[in-house]
């Protein structure tokens, strides 16, 4: 029987509870959002004692389902003030699931003395241990090896860096990758600061001799698993040697740039002259030419058949960073006017080290450049600004609180955020559907909440004109389907295969049926996804959000984006229509 | 004259070009994307997924004009 582990940081107790019936058929984002809605007062201060963080693996996580290692982390976000679910690959999701734990709920707040704790969970139970001094106040590239020395190489660590310890709104939550690097992140929304506010430095998961994930109907599960596997292995984008495996997600750089939707120099332009130099093709070529540890086709968690990650080498072949992915190379690259992968790689490494979300951090540096703290294109200065965050200087605190705070402090009007969260690497003026997603997402600007780029740019699940504005239905359908994938435990990148190959989609649902013993059909995807979104919207409404917040930054309505010279012209009524039904 | 860029795996059809380096071509009036692919570049149309002309998605029967910027892609995706 799986359980819920409740950890109270006020009185430093841990207890296992049985899973209430109403949570039995959900997991991942469905569970983190349900518990947040049930237990967190929507108007609470995100860093105060009444917020909680919930950690939950997906339905199929911990089983043999392909590419299913996700862990969802949710609560109220200090960055956006909305409900938040942010998920990550890495080693933690599967170990949590195999320990028979459906969710960890972290609540309360220690009083006073600044003592930090580590939560150790294994088959025998859970305990809070005081942190050693040498685990605090340092980069995670130093701290994680110390934690692995202490707890063994085979544990998973969910931890925060100095950004989380200092309660910065851009603090992410780190999960180790298969080689135990501090390299995978539930990055968005500042949940690392919530963890920090509860005095928890890390969760250590040791699944040795754990009960594993029970499967209600093995036959149904196996049938589904085979169908999904087949779809992933045949689709041109997800198959071994396919687009994602060969080049990584940064293969998108050139196509979004050609389409004129690649935000450049803080969203002034839609095409970057240095795009090719930070593209997946160049990453691939550099890994081959420099050799050493450089590789593409790296998997971020065991059992991933897509393997879109990479290890990027320095000129001498030694490791610079894992991973240079699309959003990160864009944020520190084109967005800052920088066309050098060694610079983007160093900035990403610093994010991993301090415990920051790369999108928010890179967008923040671009906003700082807009404010005149550095010139666009000045890589050396970009790195120095990042180091301010690591040092914890007053400027570092401003930058560590993200793009919206930085824009306010320095009087920048061109501030690319929605609900306080930085807009990712697709300019919504040139690609309208993703703009609708940014505006109406329950999470603030978040491309992963409804990836309409698939049909608008990539010809996945059909081809839709990028400039058409009437895309409310499309945006809604993507939100619902995504929410379902987010409870399944699969990485969102399976979507490219299952949107095109119907048997793959069936396979995903059958895997879930196999684990849970349900009889869901394809029709249930929209129903279940829709329920999650409605629940999240109710939380946001109670927290004070209205349709006035479901808007893009005003400058996008009057500043034309070259080369297409377009503004964001999706009518407000269309935005409001998405969730009106 | 038009400029063409071949991306991702299509780079192998012009290995002498660097990533993102354009190929400049003079074309007869009325030349379609498909004809450039087949007759000039020797790229089978089935390996091509997406073509952007001046930043706008176009079908293979699209007629090219002087000064066009063409980007040609195999299936790609990311996030
Ligand atoms: S596709 Fe990429 S991000 Fe997704 S699980 Fe695999 S390696 Fe990780």
Describe the structure in your own words.
The complex is a heterodimer of chains A (581) and B (79). With 581 residues, chain A is an alpha+beta fold. Among the domains of chain A are: 3-205, 4-Layer Sandwich (Aldehyde Ferredoxin Oxidoreductase,  A, domain 1); 248-426, Aldehyde Ferredoxin Oxidoreductase Protein, subunit A, domain 2 (Orthogonal Bundle). Helices cover 39% and strands 14% of the residues of chain A. In chain A, the strands form four sheets. Chain A has a six-stranded mixed beta sheet with strand order 2-1-6-3-4-5, sandwiched between helices. The longest helix of chain A is centred in the C-terminal third of the chain and has 20 residues, at 523-542. Chain A is globular and about 60 Å long. With 79 residues, chain B is of the alpha+beta class. Chain B has one helix and five strands. In chain B, a hairpin with a 2-residue loop joins β3 (50-53) and β4 (56-57). The radius of gyration of chain B is 12 Å and the shape is globular. The model of chain B has no long low-confidence stretch (mean pLDDT 96). The chains are: A alpha+beta (581), B alpha+beta (79). The interface between A and B is large, with 49 and 25 residues. The structure holds iron/sulfur cluster. Iron/sulfur cluster (SF4) is lined by residues 67, 89, 299-301, 304, 306-309, 491, 493 of chain A.
């Amino acid at each position: 029987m799986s359980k819920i582990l409740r950890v109270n940081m006020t009185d430093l107790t841990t207890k296992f509870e049985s899973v209430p019936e109403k949570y039995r058929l959900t997991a991942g984002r469905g569970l983190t959002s349900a518990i947040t809605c049930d237990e967190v007062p929507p108007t609470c201060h995100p860093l105060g004692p009444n917020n909680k963080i919930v950690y939950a693996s997906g339905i199929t996580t911990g089983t043999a389902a392909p590419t299913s290692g996700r862990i969802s982390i949710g609560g109220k976000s200090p960055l956006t003030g909305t409900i938040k679910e942010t998920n990550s690959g890495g080693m933690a999701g599967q170990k949590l699931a195999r320990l028979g734990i459906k969710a960890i709920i972290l609540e309360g707040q220690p009083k006073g003395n600044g003592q930090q704790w580590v939560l150790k969970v294994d088959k025998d139970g859970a305990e809070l241990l005081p942190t050693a001094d040498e685990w605090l106040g340092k980069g995670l590239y130093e701290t994680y090896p110390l934690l692995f020395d202490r707890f063994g190489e085979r544990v998973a660590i969910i931890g925060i860096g100095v950004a989380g310890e200092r309660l910065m709104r851009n603090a992410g939550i780190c999960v180790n990758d298969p080689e135990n690097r501090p390299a995978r992140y539930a990055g968005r929304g500042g949940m690392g600061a919530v963890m920090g506010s509860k005095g928890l430095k890390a969760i250590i998961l040791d699944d040795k001799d754990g009960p594993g994930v029970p499967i209600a109907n093995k036959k149904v599960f196996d049938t589904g698993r085979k169908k999904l596997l087949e779809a992933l292995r045949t689709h041109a984008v997800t198959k071994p040697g396919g687009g994602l495996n060969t080049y990584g997600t940064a293969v998108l750089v050139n196509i979004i740039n050609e389409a004129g939707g690649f935000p450049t120099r803080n969203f002034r332009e839609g095409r970057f002259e240095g795009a090719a130099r930070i593209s997946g093709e160049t990453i691939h070529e550099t890994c081959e030419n420099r050799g050493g540890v450089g590789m593409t086709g790296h998997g971020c968690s065991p059992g991933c058949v897509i393997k879109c990650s990479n290890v990027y080498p320095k000129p001498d072949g030694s490791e610079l960073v894992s991973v240079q992915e699309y959003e990160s190379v864009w944020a520190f690259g084109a967005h800052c006017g920088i066309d050098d992968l060694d610079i983007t790689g160093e900035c990403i490494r610093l994010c991993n080290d301090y415990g920051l979300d790369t999108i928010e951090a890179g967008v923040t540096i671009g906003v700082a450049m807009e404010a005149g703290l550095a010139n666009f294109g000045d890589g050396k200065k970009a790195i120095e600004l990042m180091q301010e965050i690591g040092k914890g200087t007053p400027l570092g605190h401003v930058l560590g609180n993200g793009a919206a705070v930085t824009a306010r402090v320095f009087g920048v009007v061109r501030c690319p955020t929605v609900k306080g969260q930085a807009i990712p690497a697709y300019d919504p003026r040139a690609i309208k559907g993703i703009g609708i997603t940014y505006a109406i997402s329950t999470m603030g600007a978040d491309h992963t909440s409804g990836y309409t780029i698939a049909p608008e740019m990539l010809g996945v699940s059909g081809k839709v004109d990028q400039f058409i504005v009437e895309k409310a239905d499309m945006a809604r359908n993507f939100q619902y389907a995504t929410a379902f994938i987010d409870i399944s435990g699969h990485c969102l990148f399976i979507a490219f295969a299952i949107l095109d190959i119907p048997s793959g989609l069936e396979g995903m649902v059958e895997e879930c049926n196999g684990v849970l013993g349900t009889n869901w059909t394809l029709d249930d995807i929209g129903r279940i996804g829709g329920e999650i979104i409605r629940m999240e919207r109710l939380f946001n409404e109670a927290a004070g959000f209205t349709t006035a917040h479901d808007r893009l930054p005003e400058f996008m309505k009057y500043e034309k984006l070259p080369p297409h010279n377009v503004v964001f012209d999706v009518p407000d009524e269309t935005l409001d229509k998405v969730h009106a039904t | 004259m038009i400029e063409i860029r071949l991306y991702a795996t299509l780079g192998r059809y012009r290995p002498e070009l660097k990533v993102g380096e354009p190929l400049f071509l003079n074309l007869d009036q009325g030349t379609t994307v498909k004809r450039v692919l087949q007759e000039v570049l020797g790229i089978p149309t089935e390996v091509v997924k997406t073509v952007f002309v001046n930043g706008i998605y176009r079908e293979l029967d699209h007629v090219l004009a002087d000064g066009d910027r063409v980007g040609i892609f195999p299936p790609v995706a990311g996030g």
